[in-house]
Amino acid sequence: MARSGFQHGFGGFGNEKLTTVVPKEFVHRAAAAEVFLTGWKDTGDDCFSVTAQWPRAHAFYGPSYGLHDPLLLAETIRQTIPLLSHVAYGVPFGHRLIWQDMHYTLKPEALRMAPVPAELELRVSCHNIVRRSSRLVGMRMEFLVLREGRFLASATARFTSHAPAVYRRLRGEYGDLDTALAGMIAMPQPVAPHLVGRDRRDDVVLAPGGAEGRWLLRTDVTHPVLFDHPVDHAPGMLLLEAARQAVQLTSGSVPVVPLAMKTTFTRYAEFDAPCWVETERMEADGLGRSRVRVTVRQNAQVLFETMATTACATQVN
User: Fold this and answer.
1) Residue in 106, 120, 109, 118 with CA at minimum distance from that of residue 149
2) In this protein, which residues make up the domain named A-factor biosynthesis hotdog (predicted)?
3) Of 74, 88, 226, 231, whose CB count within 10 A is highest?
4) pLDDT in tens, 213-250
5) pLDDT at 13 over 60
6) For residues 122-138, average pLDDT
7) pTM value?
8) Is 226:237 a contact under the CB 8 Å cutoff?
9) What is the pLDDT of residue 272?
10) Confidence (pLDDT) at 19
């Protein structure tokens, strides 16, 4: 069980409800402006309610075609994992939390922009909790995400937790940040931003790969959002963004929104060798929606795979 009776709230001033974000350290962010979570409380055995707010504009996860960016959902889930790991399960700061898989399915109409920021509640239940000597080493979280009380998405995520010494043993020389950064290969020139639904070259994470359905990953460790702080490998959110951009390239001139992503993380994406991002069109799902499989390989080994289900962004009601 998690710590019982845990609750975090900010109370009010008179009759007014006050809102602020959780401490950035709890969500493994260096910039407070990148924190989307606003509060949390426990609601039962290994069950929690987490609140979040999505801004109407964001430097990277900005709206498009009147819709919030679906990857805001992925980042909100990513932030919830360390928050609950620290405050509810006692994971010390400095431990590494590593994704194994993450799946989400969302209702596209619920992404519609409004005149005010989107207020979210994430109802989280934790399962398959594994401990070693009372320390958390892994679990699965299930999410029901509501926007102003209405269904937005469902999701699951599995992850492991590693003490610093264990992480160093797992990573070997790659666990040393200076060594990892010193071995970085040159970053190739990007594809045209408009082809991946971007306005800025700096936000493009793919480069031409010399063949249809194949691109090179661009790893820009100076990017203020994808690399909010120094890390020794390409983070999961970079790989999800690469998948999203690859799906858009595969879809051509039709702007698409990823309604669902079923993602598996199997290996670390290192800085010292090219990462190849490949797509394959799949049969439509039972509702006739397009599906694209995205695979990321490095040194001929698969390190990431996702199945993305999409809809035309301009046809979301």
Assistant:
1) 120
2) 26-160, 195-312
3) 74
4) 999 999 999 999 999 999 999 999 999 999 999 999 99
5) no
6) 97
7) 0.95
8) yes
9) 97
10) 81
Read off φ and ψ for residue 252, nearest 5 degrees: 75, -140
Closest CA relative to residue 49, chosen from 118, 123, 140:
123
Tokens 């964001």, residue?
58
Structural element, H or E, at residue 73: helix 71-89
From the list 108, 28, 35, the residue with the least C-alpha distance to 67 is 108
Identify the band that residue 190 occupies on the pLDDT scale cut at 50, 70 and 90.
very high
Q: Can you tell me the distance from the alpha carbon of 244 to that of 256, in angstroms, rounded to the nearest whole number? A: 9
Which residue in 67, 34, 26 sits closest to 50, CA to CA? 26
Residue 17's CB is within 10 A of a number of other CB atoms, namely 10
Whether pLDDT at 42 is above 50: yes
Average pLDDT, the chain: 95
% pLDDT > 70, the chain: 94
| Structural domains of the chain sorted by starting position, each given as residue range(s) with its CATH number in brackets | 7-162 (3.10.129.10), 182-315 (3.10.129.10)
Distance CA 236, CA 264 (A): 10
